[in-house]
Amino acid sequence: xxxxxxxxxxxxxxxxxxxxxxxxxxxxxxxxxxxxxxxxxxxxxxxxxxxxxxxxxxxxxxxxxxxxxxxxxxxxxxxxxxxxxxxxxxxxxxxxxxxxxxxxxxxxxxxxxxxxxxxxxxxxxxxxxxxxxxxxxxxxxxxxxxxxxxxxxxxxxxxxxxxxxxxxxxxxxxxxxxxxxxxxxxxxxxxxxxxxxxxxxxxxxxxxxxxxxxxxxxxxxxxxxxxxxxxxxxxxxxxxxxxxxxxxxxxxxxxxxxxxxxxxxxxxxxxxxxxxxxxxxxxxxxxxxxxxxxxxxxxxxxxxxxxxxx
Length: 310
Ligand SMILES: [Fe+2]
Prior knowledge:
CATH class of the largest domain: Alpha Beta
Largest sheet: 5 strands, mixed
Structural class: alpha/beta
CATH topology of the largest domain: Purple Acid Phosphatase, chain A, domain 2
Number of strands: 10
Helix content: 40-55%
Order of helices and strands: EHEHEHHHEEHHHHEEEEEHHHHH
Number of helices: 14
Shape: globular
CATH superfamily of the largest domain: Metallo-dependent phosphatases
Number of domains: 2
Bound molecules: fe (ii) ion
CATH architecture of the largest domain: 4-Layer Sandwich
Distance between the termini: 44 Å
Strand content: 15-25%
């Protein structure tokens, strides 16, 4: 039994297409999609269409789908915030049917293959509770800027996970043989006290310093579980051109330009920019949150002029 694990596509159709083609060539039997299908690239309907057309798929929702559900209760006339411009675009762009499909997805599923019990959730925090792994995309971005290489990220993850006492105790009591998740956009897998942890990474927007479209194959056989992390190349310059040409970009230029940087460097910038915008708004005496379009744009102009602040 071979299972492909794809997460965090974020509207990146070329990455999803490349990863699915590779998974088919690798003869996978099932596909797990671990959340966040829309957000940063201009193909939300195409991505959702592909998900819906994929046979043997197990699909859960991520925080991006939660945001859509949150917007549903609001009056679109009030959608004036700068930081959510891209989200508003996604909500309006999605067909009613696709939006309903995403909002109706479960937050987690339990799956059993060949007697192996797996829990699938989008965020590790859903099963970690109060435990912090310190492997967020922001923490990895900091390590990368301090000299850690993309290739070195796996060793860094291993060091953090294998020395984590609380995590070890939690895994011992876990009622599953493995947990599958995404959200941090950092692809990793480890065995802790006999339990398999798999973060499939972000197919559409990896932030672990390595280019391409990551996804993971879990093989379950008589000897137990084996994992292969794969990374499929695709045309990222063409993706960036398409993003800059899109109505998503026109609606959300600041967010989109930061995403372009993230694609180019495979590193988180957006969370760092949020921190910068917070300080900027405080300095100019603007306490409105979420940020207004004007403050969001002005903070970005200031951020671009200060490369040291990244
Ligand atoms: Fe995500």
